[in-house]
């Protein structure tokens, strides 16, 4: 916030004041650059999609994958979704971008299907902005019908905040998607402040344990440290008791995978099995592991 930054800066002397002003200016500039870039990125075909497998430890099979948006911007090098998605949300561009992602994923699934490999459901991340605009059902139906795909091959990842807001309209919207046989996953689970009792009422299929909880498991001694295990174990029990599928995000090490296996979470997504990869590499992985 500009005022508080200047207040801080003033208290640190004149040089700092200038430093903060410059920093704010370049932040504003970068925001503008991103906003302008995003405006043209779809038309200029600068977006592409990576896929990250969800891997089952017991069967050694890929059981799904997540579509992750990438932007090859000519001016903004190595820009990540963490930086551009929030700006795409603020500007509303995320709605068109989200529809594009759904269409691309369906195109890719149809192309894979034609090669005769075993398909797995692909998850797309849906922004709360897009979900609340209410056009998500239409976009999903349009693309799956166009490409003659079974809706159960498309999974929708929504964050806890959206799904657990307690609004009747949200439940209704989810139920409609579910009735059409699209599947629904709650992303980054455990990081929100949701009422657990509410979870029972929701027509969902999967919980994804947030990466932040997995990150904390660093060695064997973590396995019995309740401070570290309490939340992942609670989420695992919750999913089991509610009959939901479960995926652990951000699994990077053998130790973490062993921990999850021991505690009863069988599906992992993370660098340990595979980083997000382009669609050709994903096809090869599917050929080998499904
Ligand atoms: P997310 O949906 O929770 O996706 C998981 C993120 O964790 C991805 O970051 C993925 O590359 C990263 N990741 C996967 N395995 C590991 C690991 O082992 N270690 C570490 N450190 N990271 C791992 P990414 O692709 O940068 O995306 C960040 C976030 O941006 C996503 O979080 C999602 O919220 C959002 N996002 C990505 N693509 C889309 C999209 O098409 N639409 C919307 N609305 N949001 C998207
Ligand atoms: Mg996700
Ligand atoms: Mg996530
Ligand atoms: Mg996330």
UniProtKB/TrEMBL annotation:
Segments forming domain EAL: 31-290
Coiled-coil region(s): none
Superkingdom in the source lineage: Bacteria
Protein name as it appears in the record: Diguanylate cyclase
Organism the protein comes from: Methylotuvimicrobium alcaliphilum (strain DSM 19304 / NCIMB 14124 / VKM B-2133 / 20Z) (Methylomicrobium alcaliphilum)
Full-protein positions shown: 820 to 1109 of 1109
